[in-house]
TrEMBL record:
The lineage of its organism: Bacteria, Bacillati, Actinomycetota, Actinomycetes, Kitasatosporales. PROSITE patterns: AMIDASES (PS00571). It comes from Streptantibioticus ferralitis. This is Amidase. It comes from the Bacteria. SUPFAM superfamilies: Amidase signature (AS) enzymes. Residues 231-250 are annotated as: Disordered.
């Protein structure tokens, strides 16, 4: 096995035992980037020389007894919304063409302290305002969308062009591309990971989290990111709660909620079948499967858009007026639409969110985890604009992808997407595990139990070079 094929956990073990050096691993991943980047377009920029310098320093520090932990010497990518001192943060937009960050974001600083090696900045849908990331191509099929807005991060991890990466998630932007590219994406509890130094889309919905090959890898990255930060007023600084870390696959005593409504409505049959099969497998591992009703479903879309659109427009108010021509047409239309949202509508969306949070809290008195599809369908064709369902309804591609991920953003609940199979076209299918606030340990435990008994789910995308 070549070093770039290793999961984060396996790479960390090899580095800690001196069987693999950070330089060897970084060189291998950089070689993989060189081989596949022209086809995939995952990166805005790759900093190969700086990455090799950091890896060499990590190798010296580890040899001198200064091993910092499982991220030390491991190469990774950062979504290009995340500030790194001295480097551009373009947000994949002409608006940020000349921007250079003055200091590290909180998450970049934590990864630097953990000894991680920055490979480069990965593409986002412009300012994270979209679900396709048009600059990048799906790692499993180049004629399919990467998903968004953290598409570059997910594609890089799926292709072996990063051992792990960070993304952001406002309406599904970590979980959607992770599901579409067959990798793991974790949106933590709102406020658990600081967003200081991360370009905002919607302040009350934004999250930062890891994209990895496995659930075990996501747990390692999350541990490095969590901590108090007075610079982010929403930061909790509390450790995740739930079941203690276990490496066995016994889920006895865990109550898994299986939605009777919403999450399996207008969902591609192969996606529904794969996720139902994965849920049955959780039952075979000892979990109790409990049928549940998802509350307030008819208000989800209106609440998500009622919060996100005006908050995004407020953030971009200055540049939208001074240089609107620099925005891509799809993003500019959304930002201009936000100027038409009334204050009363925004307040009603906030009230709806409060009621939704209460209703979901009540739901979690009966279950520990909710299991459902991460997205309604696998990756759409790059030129596809809409999805037509058997009942005759039509949805835009963005609307169909955000539909199942938005509830966890509105409520701030932790949500994990992990691969559970392929459709008949060979495209990845993702299952979503949602937990109660600060319940990361529970959803991670559930995901680990599944993946350890389904070894093939963590394989790289089959890219011929």
């Amino acid at each position: 096995m070549r070093p770039y094929e290793l999961t984060l956990a396996d790479a960390a073990k090899a580095i800690a035992s001196r069987e693999l050096s950070p330089v060897e691993l970084t060189d291998s991943v950089l070689g993989r980037i060189e081989a596949v980047e022209g086809r995939l377009g995952a990166y805005v920029a790759v900093f190969a020389d700086a990455a090799r310098h950091t890896a060499a320093r990590a190798e010296r520090d580890i040899a001198a007894g200064g091993y910092r932990g499982p991220l030390h010497g491991v190469p990774m990518g950062l979504k290009d919304l995340i500030d790194v001192a001295g480097l551009p943060t373009t947000a994949s937009s002409r608006v940020r063409e000349h921007h250079v960050a003055v200091r590290d974001s909180a998450v970049a600083a934590r990864l630097r302290d953990a000894g991680a090696v920055l490979l480069g900045k990965t593409h986002t849908h412009e300012f994270a305002y979209g679900l396709t990331t048009p600059q990048s191509r799906n790692a499993w099929a180049a004629d399919r969308v990467a998903g968004g807005s953290s598409g570059g991060s997910a594609v890089a991890v799926a292709a072996g062009a990063a051992t792990f990466a960070l993304g952001t998630d406002t309406g599904g932007s970590i979980r959607v591309p992770s599901a579409l590219n067959g990798v793991v994406g974790l949106k933590p509890t709102y406020g658990l990971v600081s967003r200081h130094g991360v370009t905002s889309l919607s302040w009350s919905l934004d999250h930062v989290g890891p994209i990895t090959r496995t659930v075990a890898d996501a747990e390692l990255v999350l541990a490095a990111l969590v901590g108090p930060d007075p610079s982010d007023r929403a930061a909790l600084g509390e450790p995740p709660t739930g079941h203690p870390r276990r490496t066995d696959a016994d889920l006895t005593g865990l109550r898994v909620g299986v939605p009777r409504n919403y999450y399996f409505e207008r969902v591609a049959p192969e996606v529904a079948e794969a996720v139902h099969s994965a849920i049955v497998h959780l039952g075979e591992l000892g979990a109790e499967l409990v049928a549940v009703d998802i509350p307030m479903t008819k208000y989800i879309q209106a609440t998500q858009w009622g919060l996100m659109v005006p908050e995004a427009t407020a953030y971009h108010e200055g540049t939208l007026r001074s240089s609107p021509e620099l925005y891509a047409p799809d993003v500019r239309v959304l930002l201009e639409a936000g100027e038409l949202v009334l204050a009363g509508d925004y307040l009603r969306a906030q009230r709806s969110r409060t009621l939704m949070r209460r209703a979901w809290a009540e739901l979690f008195t009966a279950v520990d985890v909710i299991a459902a599809p991460a997205v309604t369908s696998t990756a759409a064709r790059s030129d596809q604009q809409t999805v037509e369902w058997p009942d005759g309804t039509m949805e835009s591609v963005s609307d169909t992808y955000v539909r199942l991920s938005a509830p966890a953003n509105i409520t701030g609940l932790p949500s994990l997407s992990l691969p559970v199979g392929l459709d008949s076209a060979g495209l990845p299918i993702g299952m979503q595990l949602i937990g109660r606030p600060l319940g990361e340990a529970t959803i991670l435990r559930t995901g680990r139990a599944y993946e350890t008994t389904r070894e093939s789910v963590s394989r790289l995308a089959p890219i011929a070079v």
